[in-house]
Amino acid sequence: MREFAKYGFAGARVERIVSRADVSPRSLYYHFDSKRGLYDAVRERLSSQHFEDFVRGVTDEPLADRLLANIDVAMTPRWQTWARMLMWEALDGGAGSAPYPEGTVPGDLLAIRAAQERGEIDPELDPHVLTLAFIAITFWPTMFPQSTKRLTEGMPKDELLRARKDLVRALVRRLGEDAGRELPAAVVPGGEEPR
What we know:
mainly alpha; Tetracycline Repressor, domain 2; 10 helices; elongated
């Protein structure tokens, strides 16, 4: 898992994998047929765990609670490994690099739509764009640690975590308070794209 997360599929070396796992190459090939077979098995395992963590729509809890729980899960080593594998797949042009199974709707999108239906946040906001914004707050520091360090001027991780959570709480609260205000067309479903 770590080998693929660190080097991507193309850069991963079977020699390092078997050395770390303390198994013979013959054993690896017996169980997985190839490096691709091992990769696919690792990806499937992580994908199903990720699906359980994020994709299941929990739509009856307050939106802020859902989004804060996502930040906590994103801080786990397992999720950070998964995120790095997804980034490598995206860079390599992998068709399967979406973090959720085809034909499913991300849980955050379901949670945002439910919050809009409950009147918790402005129903005029495009839930897809809002989902992207919250995904960025949640996952940017994991996926781009060097940029995060520069942007936050080296803010300690625990302080950054606290600041991200405070920001999510404030955004959800404000998105609910501003339900009656006029929104730019670019963030309204079906609105015009900026030029």
